Amino acid sequence: MPTAASNNKSALHLAPLAIGLLALVAFIALFSGWTGAGQVSAAKDTLWVLLTSGPWALAWIVAATGLGWPLQSWLTPDAEDKFSLQVGLGVAAMLTADAGLGAIGAFQWGGSIGGWVLLAIGIALAITQTLITKPKDNSKPSKNVWLICAITPAIAILLLAACSAPGWLWASEFGGYDALSYHLQLPKEWLALGQFQPLEHNVYSYLPGYVEAAFYHIAVLTGEGVNSAYANQLLHAGLTLLTALVVGRTATRLGGTLAGIIAAALLLGTPWIIVVGSLGYNEMAVALLFACGLSLLLQSHEITWREGAALGLLISAACGSKLTAVGLVAAPLIAIALIIVPPKRWISLLLSVGIASLLILLPYFLRNWIYSGNPIFPFAADILGSAHWTAEQAQIFSNGHAPPKSLGLRLSELWHQLMRYGIGSNPYTDEPWRAQWSILPWLTIFSLILLAAIKPWRKLALRLTITILIGILFWLSFTHIKSRFVLPVAIPAVLAVSMAITLSLKHFSVAIARLVLVIVLLLWSIQTAFIFADEGMKAPAQRIGRIDIITGDALTPTLRTELASNSPTITVNHLLPDSAKVLFLGEAAPFYYKANITYQTTWDRGPLSEIIRLNPDQPTTWIAQLRELGFTHILINHIMIQRWEEAQWNDPLINTANMDLLTKQLAVEGHWNHLGLALYRLQ
Q: HSE of 659 in the Cβ direction (CA atoms, 13 Å)?
């Protein structure tokens, strides 16, 4: 029977949580007021999105954690941080199950019963674990509540941005163009098709797509491909928070509670983490699995073959989430594992890692092999086959994703995209310039030097340095060197900085150290708010919960007509006849369009390409043949076609000259000059 003393203890433990939640609510209310002059605060819209879409994301995370329980118990029973590995292994299992079951259409068996079954199994395991596990009784409340509160501005921005309609934030991501083009677009199409599969008009569907498979799973549960974007963005935000938690727990193990709080705060306060984490992207699954892998390797004991299998599950799921994890996650972690394990055990370690990795990536390899004949299409097209692509397409794709050939240019990009990104003058004429790495790269260098100078910390400094250097070398050698793509290195970076700061604070009194930390962490956490304030035409919270407005579904017929002059989406969705069939040219981000449309990415070829190839310089024939295919309208993004042409990414036949020939024969149905879009009528 509970006593008065135990009740007082519970109240003491709940007090820091209550203070933290109040601080979070206060910052959400503050930042959600940035909706533009004279507009009502968007706080209630944020609450609505969190209450209606948040449970789907939370249910997925709980189910994943439940699936991780038996895996962690079997593979890493002696782990120093069982919770972090349970989360990582569970997320790896859930992502793989989503990819495998989604590929055979199991989620939509019986409507959506298949999707519910997997979720129910995971949640049941989580509940069972909770019921049979005795909670630890910590007798003292946290003394670090004010430090924890200092993180809340970053969490508030993360949640606000995740509740915003896709496409409004962020400038460095061109409104999350990749999400509108494939991260969120593909799950919408898979929901209509009934399964997770490659699509010839969107080459990104041939990537492993494990996170997109999770988005598809949630779309099945909600029954809606567009409005499920809120839940999917919140899922990605949830993975961001879990990453900070795992990083904090690892730092706590290495350097104490203070180090853990500093590490979590540094990660969440880095603007790139908030920008990426709030979008419907896949990076934070990679970051979480990387953090869990480091947690496994930075233990005091030598890893066993079972822990090697766990490492294989983590790194392969990271690669299934985003293929660049091969060099940013897998290579660094395997390198550290080989340092830790004696050479005589290397073969057994690599075998356990390799077999586990193959099991996780098998859905990807099999799916691509069945659909294209090349298990890793569109890569290695010249060796394993280019599927439905021509050799020209494969070459254009390869060129578009390759780094500069010159070492000097690569080093220049290292300087601009990482070391001084967003600081000083902008070296790029057509790209936004925001300090989204802040000063983290410089703090990391100084911290690693400090740790290397102190004998007990040299081993850790060496291991963190190796992970960072391998990641950066891969980024410079095998990607087109954009700042966001090197994001996983933030995990070892903040671990290094948190250790260095913790060691430095030992020279000060506890009271002074805590006061300084609260101020510094609050400033660090709030820096993304200044970037956020400048987004969305300086009204960043304006489109929180506004998907139905953008699609036009929530508007009256009168309002649709009034707003159509500023919105091609409303025009195509609601003002064209039901029989309309629209061909998109240059418009490869069709997420909000619900009408009968045909689109393709710049790397793919649509129906007009073949028509022009067979009938060059004959625009009247092009129009006649498009009509025969049932098309009634063409929507052309003239700006994007010109941009693709200048970058040499475009289909050589879909160029500005041919578009001029075509449009001279057509009547304009609508034009949106501020977007570079025009709608033409074929009939």
A: 23
Query: What residue type is assigned to position 604 of the chain?
Result: D
18 to each of 4, 13, 15, 30, 522, how far by Cα in Å?
Answer: 20, 9, 5, 18, 18
Please give the structure tokens belonging to residue 577: 């006849």
pTM passes above 0.90: yes
Q: For residue 592, give the nearest of 573, 619, 611 by alpha carbon.
A: 573
Half-sphere exposure of 29 (CA within 13 A, CB side): 6
Residue 438 gets the label, from left (phi > 0), alpha (psi -120 to 50) or beta, of left
Residue ranges in the chain whose pLDDT is less than 70? 1-17, 36-41, 135-146, 510
Residue holding tokens 């291991």? 463
- Consecutive H or E run containing 450: helix 440-453
User: Tokens for 667?
Assistant: 């009547």
Length of the chain: 683
User: 394: which 2 tokens?
Assistant: 């494969």
The tokens for 196 are 């997770």
Enter the tokens of residue 141.
Answer: 């409340």
The whole-number pLDDT of residue 143 equals: 63
Cis peptide before 170 (omega within 30 of 0): yes
Output the pLDDT for position 1: 43
Alpha-carbon separation of residue 53 from 25, 146, 407, 643 (angstroms) = 18, 30, 47, 36
Neighbours of 3 (CB within 10 A): 8
Question: Which residue do the tokens 């897998």 mark?
Answer: 330
Say how far apart CA 119 and CA 21 lie, in whole Å.
28
The amino acid occupying position 601 is T
DSSP state letters, 351-385:
HHHHHHHHHHHHHHHHHHHHHHS-TTTTTTHHHH-
**What one-character DSSP code corresponds to residue 540?**
G
Q: What is the DSSP letter of 565?
A: G
Chain-centre distance of CA 199, in angstroms? 21
**For residue 378, is the peptide bond before it cis, meaning its omega torsion is within 30 degrees of 0?**
yes
Alpha carbon distances (Å) from 42 to 48, 227, 283, 545, 554: 10, 18, 27, 9, 17
- How far, CA to CA in Å, does 9 sit from each of 13, 16, 304? 6, 12, 40
Give exposure, 401-424, as e/b (b: 16+ Cβ within 10 Å).
eebeeeeeebeebbebbbebbbee
Strands 667-672, 597-598: parallel, antiparallel or unpaired by DSSP?
unpaired
Residue ranges per domain, the chain?
12-39+48-133+146-394+416-537, 547-681
**E strand or H helix at 18, and its extent?**
helix 4-32
What pLDDT score was predicted for residue 140?
A: 53
The tokens 């956490």 sit on which residue?
Answer: 525
| Span between the terminal Cα atoms of the chain, in Å | 79
Give pLDDT, residue 136.
Answer: 65
Going by the DSSP 8-state scheme, the letter that residue 417 receives in this structure is I
pLDDT tens string 173-203: 999 999 999 999 999 999 999 999 999 999 9
| 517, two tokens | 């930390």
Distance CA 216, CA 190 (A): 7
| CA 452, 454, 455, 458 torsion-angle sign | negative
Per residue in 369-417, pLDDT tens?
Answer: 999 999 999 998 889 999 999 999 999 998 888 888 889 999 999 999 9
Instruction: Tell me which amino acid residue 477 is.
Output: S
Whole-angstrom distance, CA of residue 667 vs CA of residue 615 = 21
